[in-house]
Design a protein that fits this description.
The complex is a heterodimer of chains A (365) and B (288).
Chain A: H1 15-35, H2 39-64, H3 73-90, H4 94-116, H5 121-141, H6 143-146, E1 152-153, E2 160-162, E3 165-167, H7 172-194, H8 197-207, H9 209-214, H10 219-245, E4 247-248, H11 250-254, H12 256-269, H13 275-292, H14 295-299, H15 308-317, H16 322-335, H17 339-359, H18 361-364
Antiparallel strand pairs in A: 1-4, 2-3
Helix pairs in contact in A: 1-7, 2-7, 2-8, 2-10, 2-12, 2-13, 3-4, 3-10, 4-10, 7-10, 8-10, 12-13, 12-16, 12-17
Chain B: H1 2-32, H2 39-57, H3 65-82, H4 92-114, E1 129-132, E2 135-138, H5 139-161, H6 163-173, H7 175-180, H8 185-207, H9 217-232, H10 237-257, H11 263-277
Antiparallel strand pairs in B: 1-2
Classes of the chains: A mainly alpha (365), B mainly alpha (288).
Chain lengths: 365, 288
């Protein structure tokens, strides 16, 4: 297995092997709940898929087009609020509401993009943060529309009927499957972007804006396209989050923390690749979930009921689970700027060199 | 008219403290071209340090500056030497992410130790004020402003008149040229980060009698510090001083004439407008 074939920055092939591997992984994850029924495990799965969707979404504008938005909470929050408000106020079920959420996010992204894309580098980062903050503060202030800091509590998701099949959203299982499907679709969307003309344009913009411009790439248009795709996918994640967690308020969905977490998923995994955000989510989610809710370890039978460790984590880390994000990002930036994926690539390259040198001494030079 | 004057005065008083935070950030940016996203967290550490010496030793927050400032200076110098120094030539995005990470580590470590409870530091003069006609001036804010003004004046003197200060300014102007002139730019970077951290920590000490103390208090101030620094022109100390007062004024007037919940929103909107139409800052000297 050649890891580079999983969609590298240098080599754009995703390869038949890669596609097959992804399909096998999705199939395995789909049958997984048949064998493991513990709600905590399924919960972890949903959170993991959600993080993958967020990471992949950011990847389009941050990874491929190289525009480091630290304001993606704006789209996440718009997705969450639109879906939640349509359901709570007009009884529109989330599988219809989510499209309105996506439309809102795309419109918002066009407004934000046309303002912030005139700026570059650190100025763009600061502008993206301040736009998200403006929206958070507005959501807190205009109570008539958003209920302010009180937020929205989900009352009930109606049952989804497809033909004779009726799906109730009481347990974690339907959420698990929905999140898995959304994550798979998001990865597919990312693959399509990477392998289209758009993807080439985006990467040209990332590598050298001015050169891309002189080659006839319309910078504002294509940056906006990248942001719109990214915003749509992020709103998707936001709407799903609102339905899964069942409570939203301006600080939890529009907060700067949300934007930072989205970026870190990509940075820690590896930017501008399809597998990167998946790795990033797989590293970050279990760590932060265990710190957030250590009782899960008891549920899994890994620790005894009266474990002192669980009590300690619960007492101390419950709010401080972002510590892991902080430590990881510092370590990654200092020692592995290409993320975990970069480390894996270097390691496999070294192994292959050694194997090559031992196996075929005649052609090694 | 009284309301207007009242809000102008309190805006200027708060703005003075904002200026102190902004000056710290702008010195760091000037010397290293690094945007320090952990700046508010340094201020938060200053607040907690002040709170600790107040509750344990009973030291007045304004006196505790003599302990807090050197402490934060050392911490800042340490952060520069161990972390920031390694990314001076990295992509700006990576520098930003590194400082975001350091900020997260600081705020979450404080949360681990002190929990996320809000702390209040109540001094005998916390809620007292002077009245001048119909205008009342908060006593702790006035003290804080006067100390800020003294520190800012001392800092100007240091930067303009001392050899070290001039070396810092030379490094900010042109790192390579400064190095060729025999200035130890590495030492200047450590010094600049230390000074920036000390100023931020001092600001934390100064507002601790009037502000809630909690682990995530920093991020709001980090954002405010950026607004201040961009308004004044990145790297300009005079600009940051004016920018701080301007942001304080805007907030205080917006709270009265727009809505108190929207005062920060107004600041951010103004910030975006400046970024778009006058990215070199209000003072207008363009720097690449």
């Amino acid at each position: 297995m050649d890891l580079r074939s999983l969609g590298g920055r240098g080599q754009r092939g995703f390869g038949i092997v890669g596609i097959l591997l992804v399909l096998v992984a999705i199939a395995l994850l789909a049958v997984f709940p048949q064998f493991v029924k513990k709600p905590y495990v399924l919960h972890m799965g949903v959170v993991l898929f959600l993080a993958i969707i967020q990471g992949q979404a950011w990847n389009v504008v941050g990874g491929y087009a190289g525009q480091y938005s630290v304001g993606h909470a704006a789209y996440f929050g718009i997705g969450a609020y639109t879906t939640m408000m349509l359901l709570e106020m007009y009884k529109i079920p989330p599988w219809w509401g989510i499209w309105a959420a996506i439309a809102n996010a795309v419109i918002l992204s066009l407004v934000i993009g046309s303002i912030t894309f005139r700026l570059r580098g650190p100025y763009f980062v600061l502008a993206s943060i301040s736009v998200a903050e403006i929206i958070r503060l507005a959501a807190l202030h205009f109570r008539g529309l958003t209920r302010g800091a009180e937020g929205f509590l989900l009352s009930e998701i109606p049952a989804l009927t497809i033909g004779d099949l009726s799906i109730e959203f009481y347990t974690k299982r339907p959420f698990y499957y929905a999140a898995l499907a959304l994550a798979a679709l998001t990865i597919a969307a990312n693959w399509l972007v990477q392998h289209s003309k758009l993807g080439y344009y985006f990467q040209a913009i990332r590598e050298d804006q001015d050169a891309a411009h002189s080659l006839g790439i319309n910078l504002p248009v294509y940056k906006n396209v990248a942001l719109a795709i990214s915003a749509a996918l992020t709103a998707w994640a936001g709407g799903f989050y609102a339905m899964f967690v069942k409570f939203i308020d301006p600080n939890t969905v529009f907060g700067l923390d949300v934007s930072v977490q989205i970026v870190l998923i990509c940075i820690i995994g590896g930017i501008g690749t399809i597998i990167g955000p998946v790795i990033g989510a797989m590293v970050l989610v279990p760590l932060s979930e265990v710190l957030r809710n250590p009782k899960g370890l008891v549920q899994l039978g890994l620790l005894p009921q009266d474990s002192a460790l669980v009590a300690f984590i619960e007492a101390r880390f419950a709010n401080a689970h972002l510590l892991v994000y902080g430590i990881l990002v510092v370590v990654v930036i200092l020692f592995a700027p290409d993320g975990v994926l970069g480390v894996i690539r270097k390691a496999t390259a070294r192994v292959r060199r050694r194997a090559g040198a031992a196996g075929e001494p005649a052609t090694a030079g | 008219m009284t309301v207007f004057l009242q809000s102008v005065i309190s805006g200027i008083l708060v703005g003075g403290i904002y200026a102190l935070i902004g000056i710290g950030l702008t010195i760091i940016f000037g010397v290293m071209r690094v945007i320090n996203f952990a700046h508010g967290e340094l201020m938060m550490l200053g607040m907690y340090a002040t709170w600790i010496v107040f509750t344990m030793l009973g030291l007045d927050p304004f006196v505790s500056i003599v302990l807090v400032a050197p402490l934060l200076f050392l911490w800042g110098a340490f952060l520069q030497k161990v972390f920031i120094n390694r990314v001076l030539n990295a992509l700006p995005q990576n520098q930003i992410l590194l400082t975001i990470g350091l900020g997260l580590v600081m705020s979450n470590t404080v949360m681990l130790i002190f929990t996320s409870d809000y702390r209040i530091l109540t001094t005998s003069y916390s809620s007292s004020s002077y009245t001048l006609g119909e205008i009342s001036i908060s006593q702790p804010l006035l003290f804080a402003f006067l100390i800020t003004a003294a520190i800012t004046a001392a800092l100007y003197w240091f930067l303009l008149k001392t050899d070290t200060g001039q070396a810092i300014r030379a490094t900010a102007q042109d790192r390579d040229a400064a190095q060729l002139m025999g200035i130890n730019v590495r030492a200047m970077s450590v010094l600049a980060f230390g000074i920036g951290a000390a100023l931020s920590g001092t600001a934390g000490a100064l507002i601790s009698p009037t502000y809630y103390i909690f682990p995530q208090v920093g991020s709001a101030f980090t954002l405010k510090a950026f607004v201040i620094v961009v308004l004044g022109g990145m790297g300009s100390v005079v600009g940051a001083t004016l920018g701080g007062v301007l942001v304080g004024l805007t907030e205080s007037l917006a709270a009265v004439y727009v809505a108190s919940g929207l005062k920060e929103l107004v600041v951010f909107v103004a910030f975006l407008a400046v970024l778009l139409f006058k990215p070199s800052g209000l003072l207008g000297k363009t720097r690449a």
